[in-house]
Design brief:
Blueprint lengths: L5 H17 L6 H19 L4 H22 L1
Helix pairs in contact: 1-2, 1-3, 2-3
Length: 74
């Protein structure tokens, strides 16, 4: 993936929207957006490119872990 084409922006916006719906009662929207952004940057730094599928899977796993930690702290 090179640069940020309009298609790429739409793909990552769709990921954020899906994860916001999935984790709506668990995490604030800002947390979901930050997890997607962090996953995208991490994958790109490690592999040189960030496919939307990889980013979504990693962000979802991070959000699950954050939810587990929050539940344990209650």
């Amino acid at each position: 993936m090179s640069g940020t084409s309009q298609d790429t922006i739409r793909e990552f916006t769709a990921i954020v929207d899906r994860l916001r719906t999935e984790f709506g009662g668990v995490h604030p929207h800002a947390t979901v957006s930050r997890c997607v952004d962090a996953a995208r940057h991490s994958v790109r730094d490690i592999t040189g490119e960030a496919s939307p599928d990889q980013v979504e899977r990693i962000a979802r796993k991070h959000l699950h872990v954050l939810a587990l930690v929050a539940a344990e702290q209650r």
